[in-house]
Amino acid sequence: MTRRELAHWARQPVQMVVGLVFPVMMLLMFGFLVGGGRGIDGEYVEFLVPGMLALTMAFGLEATMTAVTQDLGKGVIDRFRAMPMSSSAVLVGRSAADMLQSAVGLAVLAGVGLLLGWRWHGSPAAALLAFALLLLLRFAMLWIGICLGMVAGRPELVQAVQILVWPVGFLSNAFATPQSMPGWLGTVVEWNPMSATATAVRDLFGNPSAAPPSWASDHAALLAVAWPVLLLAVFFPLAVARFRGLSR
């Protein structure tokens, strides 16, 4: 099942390239066209790149949802379920391919960040832990996409669900600090799962986080693990239950 998903990359290279280029375009746009960095001590690019790495973990979710709904609409999943194979292989194969693509996307975006002047100042072990937290967030977001894709059922309904990804992504500290926002909005941003991951990753990279003193910022690493685990605890069983109930 994983090889099947990877074969789609060779048959549809444009989709793969767009998925890699879009976060790079966002990084360049906010770094050079929109970038401000109010309340940030140090280079804005060192604040921006870790935030973009976290935000990228939500991008591409619509591709996962579309792939699931297309397989449902064409009856592909029904044929797989009739074959002598583990039913979990369908979802696991989809998630494994998505995680490989996410790892490639992280590497590309981090490479562009290095070209723009971003550097990490922590140990190699801390940097690896930062990337592990990013992929953990992606894994949780992936299962949200798989679950919502099966609930939507049709590709044309994906766009309606996709609209929800943008507010959640931009209501984070990827581009600006919570203290530069109105009080109530800053609180919402501070408790966003992507904000927790972005803050924890900035700390591990040794980049400026500019996070105001609060429980959420002081325990960002804990929240960067707790949020994805909580999301997985909710959406993983929902996705599995939905998949098992497809033929009922």
UniProtKB/TrEMBL annotation:
InterPro entries cross-referenced by the UniProt entry: ABC2_TM, ABC2_TM_bact-type, ABC_2_transport, Nod_factor_ABC_transporter
Subcellular location: Cell membrane; Membrane
One Pfam short name: ABC2_membrane
Highest taxon of source: Bacteria
PROSITE patterns: ABC_TM2
Transmembrane segments: 12-35, 47-68, 89-118, 124-145, 220-241
Domain ABC transmembrane type-2: 14-246
Bilayer topology term: Multi-pass membrane protein
Keywords, in A-Z order: Antibiotic resistance, Cell membrane, Membrane, Transmembrane, Transmembrane helix, Transport
Family: Belongs to the ABC-2 integral membrane protein family.
The protein, known as: Transport permease protein
Originating organism: Streptomyces caledonius
